[in-house]
Amino acid sequence: MGDVTTDPTTGRTPSEHERIKAITAIALKTEEVGLDVFATGEHHNPPFVPSSPTTMLGWIAARTENLILSTSTTLITTNDPVKIAEDFAMLQHLADGRVDVMMGRGNTGPVYPWFGQDIRQGIPLAVENYALLHRLWREDVVDWEGRFRTALQGFTSTPRPLDGVPPFVWHGSIRSPEIAEQAAYYGDGFFHNNIFWPSDHTKQMVDLYRTRFAHYGHGTPEQAIVGLGGQVFMRKNSQDAVREFRPYFDNAPVYGHGPSLEDFTEQTPLTVGSPQQVIEKTLSFREYAGDYQRQLFLMDHAGLPLKTVLEQIDMLGEQVVPVLREEFAKGRPAGAPDAPTHASLVARRDAEAAGGAGKQTESVK
Amino acid sequence: MNREPIKLVVVSAGLSTPSSSRLLGDRLAEAVRQSAADGGRPVEVRVVELRDLAVDVAHNLVAGFAGRTLAEAIEAVAQADGLIAVTPVFSASYSGLFKSFFDVFDNDALTGTPVLIAATGGTARHSLALEHALRPLFTYLRAVVVPTAVYAASEDWGGSGDPLIDTLPTRIARAAGELAGLLLARPPAPRAAAGAVVQFEQQLAALRPE
């Protein structure tokens, strides 16, 4: 999340510089323990520091080999879609394709006017800006006219996407069916940020996306690309996890001073306990979201010290994720796709070019 | 002829047990039930006591989502054919709990819902809180508020008072008749089905420059 928050147990507040360095250390740890993805949020107000995601991800790209670099989320409403096209294509080249991006609208009211936009136009901004971004990555020369941005005549976004294949896009939303519809229309991924929401709501949104994905001819509902959020704090002994995490939970910037840790654990994906409890709860997400492709965990927020976050990621990489990979693979239908990577998208493009017809051509709109 | 039961929900923000707001809500619900029965429709009454939901409402304000008990109550109110909303008057307006409860609704959840507004207080001097606080609130929510709002001061529960002024039972009967009339006459308010889709082509087309 990139928040600069006072550690409630020590009263110490890290500087912005310390926080930024801590975030990059966490990213390197993510690769070290064999996790797949590191994603950063984007914020334009204190107490958050990550305002410039591709700068940070570029630094991380230079020091990692396998990690996929992503965002959670990139503001499609208030960023210029032309700049998103350029920044992420550049990052994609620097990272040799280890890049995808998650679009989100952002819910901090003043950010919209600070960037010359109107929050009441949130959905139309997301729709129009992404429609332009989608073309900029796929057409070498773009003439374009819309409501929110100055028109383009003969514009070429550079660099062109690596191997002519744009970064995979997720559309993140909590409660807007319009965004699930948008993701389905393009055949892009849909990420439901469920960490503050009960599971029946998540199921409704994911079901809608899957149904509409099939409606637009991108495959069966089971072939849609779904991502979910999660939030965990672990210790070997679950009592220790609860005791240690409670002050951070109670004072967290987003949900602190609200429902109890116990209520929150019961009603949302939050798990505070042993690695085994985290495994069990995470495996249960499949019951309402179907077989899905990406699981992100919120690990670094609420003033947790860097050392603690690194320990958490160690446990995630060593004790939790290997079991999740194994268990999720069991009973997974043959039709359920893997999460798209640059290599798989290049291979699909080449197969389509070679094969000519095939149902995927329908999806190229 | 439609014999489906009318779903009537009473929201009472009274804090004592028993509270005069609940008492008023029950009287109004019974009067609506009778009036609708005269018109040939049975009524199912559900009472939502906000006292029981006070902590859940506060949690929703802080955490951004409703816990199960509160979500179920919100759903019952949103799906009601008609609503009776009763609050005690605190500091010249609806109680904070009453307002907070409706604050956590989606702003289109009550569109078209017929609503009878009512309030209780120690003195009749606060009766216009119904007109300057409750009526605008439900108008903002695009509910249909019946013309007669019922205020019950402590003294209204006793003698008939000035014979030239409507008594509480008279006002209850008039307001209930107005609500029952709406409920009997109106087709159910059209509600967006859960998971309704806005076709993406329409979203895009709406943005095309003229």
From TrEMBL, chain A:
Residues 331-365 are annotated as: Disordered. It comes from the Bacteria. The keyword DNA repair does not apply. Pfam families: Bac_luciferase. InterPro entries: Bact_Lucif_Oxidored (IPR050766), LLM_FMN-dep_put (IPR023934), Luciferase-like_dom (IPR011251), Luciferase-like_sf (IPR036661). Keywords: Monooxygenase, Oxidoreductase. Residues 14-288 form the Luciferase-like domain. GO terms for cellular component: cytosol. One of its GO terms (molecular function) is monooxygenase activity. This is Luciferase-like domain-containing protein. The lineage of its organism: Bacteria, Bacillati, Actinomycetota, Actinomycetes, Kitasatosporales.
UniProtKB/TrEMBL annotation, chain B:
Residues 7-157 form the NADPH-dependent FMN reductase-like domain. The keyword ATP-binding does not apply. It is an enzyme of class 1 (oxidoreductase). It holds the Pfam family FMN_red. The keyword Disulfide bond does not apply. Its EC number is 1.5.1.-. It comes from the Bacteria. One of its GO terms (molecular function) is oxidoreductase activity. Keywords: Flavoprotein, FMN, Oxidoreductase. NCBIfam families: LLM_duo_CE1759. This is FMN reductase. It comes from Actinacidiphila cocklensis.
